[in-house]
């Protein structure tokens, strides 16, 4: 199942780097791709059998860590 995740951050933040950091912290059986990046935002598509709630919870855990503080899932 595909899950679209939008991340929002400060305009000066690097959205590509945020995506790579998020993706590197996901469970190994999940896959994904960066769909779009722009000033202050990024869109990821994650593929997993996990529920939408589980995906949201895991992404929220990852972006709460120090390197990604300031990014929000929207």
Write structural notes for this entry.
The structure is a single chain. Strands 2-3-1-4 form a four-stranded antiparallel beta sheet, covered by helices on one side. It is an alpha+beta fold and 74 residues long. It contains two helices and four strands, in the order E-H-E-E-H-E. The two termini are 19 Å apart.
Q: Could you tell me the number of beta strands?
A: 4
Radius of gyration, in angstroms, nearest whole number: 11 Å
Helix content: 25-40%
Q: Going across the major beta sheet, what is the strand order?
A: 2-3-1-4
**Alpha carbon gap, first and last residue:** 19 Å
Structural class: alpha+beta
Q: Shape from CA axes?
A: globular
Mean pLDDT: 96
Strand proportion, as a percent range, falls in 25-35%
Helical segment tally?
2
Low-confidence stretches: none
Secondary-structure element string: EHEEHE
Keyphrases for this structure?
74 residues; alpha+beta; 4-stranded antiparallel sheet; 2 helices; 4 strands
Helix-strand blueprint:
Layout: E1 2-8, H1 15-24, E2 31-38, E3 41-47, H2 52-63, E4 72-73
Antiparallel strand pairs: 1-3, 1-4, 2-3
What is this entry, summarized?
This protein is α+β, with helices and mostly antiparallel strands and 74 residues long.
